Amino acid sequence: MSDPKLTKFSRRVFLGTAAAGLATPALAQQSLSAADLAAQTELERDAGTEVRHNISSFRTLEWQPYFDNLNNGAILVDITSRALHFWSEDESTYRLFPSSVPLSEDLTRRGRTSVVRLVEGPSWRPTPAMRERNPEWPDFIGPGPDNPLGTHALYLGWQFYRIHGTHDTRKIGRRSSNGCIGLYNEHIAELFGMVEVGTQVLLI
Predict the structure, then answer these.
(1) What value, to the nearest 5°, has the Cα angle with vertex 151 and ends 156 and 90?
(2) pTM for the predicted model, two decimal places
(3) Could you tell me if residue 121 is left (phi over 0), alpha (psi between -120 and 50 degrees) or otherwise beta?
(4) Which residues pair with 84 in a beta bridge?
(5) Per-residue pLDDT tens for 171-187?
(6) Dist. CA 22–CA 141, nearest whole Å
(7) Which residues are marked as active site?
(8) What is the pLDDT of residues 117-140, one digit of tens each?
């Protein structure tokens, strides 16, 4: 018979690791100010090693240096400052959200793509690369509190890449994913309500 404490611990370890593989508290109920964002951004190392605060500053940006137009709206993800910017097509809405970003440069993809699918209550499957590195991970997790994709997911034109929520709020503002961009669940729900299939996405 398995030890219930061990089972519970193993489940927690998987959930924390799985959320990192994809790549929200009261503070996150609204878009945070630049000062708030800068204060909570830090660089995450492997468990057991030191965590160094990142002094990169968050700042509002204009869309014109990055996009030719705002057709269907536009999302800019700045990997360095770990922030996601959104502009609506009519320029009436601008949002700035803290985000998680890929753990290392070799997992990072930059360039232009678009939102190709929007899913509320997404399910999760590990990618082939994740399965190779972590054969003990489950093949599938359905929607719910155990899902590494959180409450909402924006599927991008690049296979296996998403902008999604997370139930593990420690991931936000850190290098903690295998390629995806993570937001607090409150923030991905807000963004989900503003984007559409075809929304432009640029990762820099």
Answers:
(1) 55
(2) 0.72
(3) left
(4) 77, 97
(5) 999 998 878 999 999 99
(6) 13
(7) 164, 180
(8) 999 999 999 889 888 888 999 999
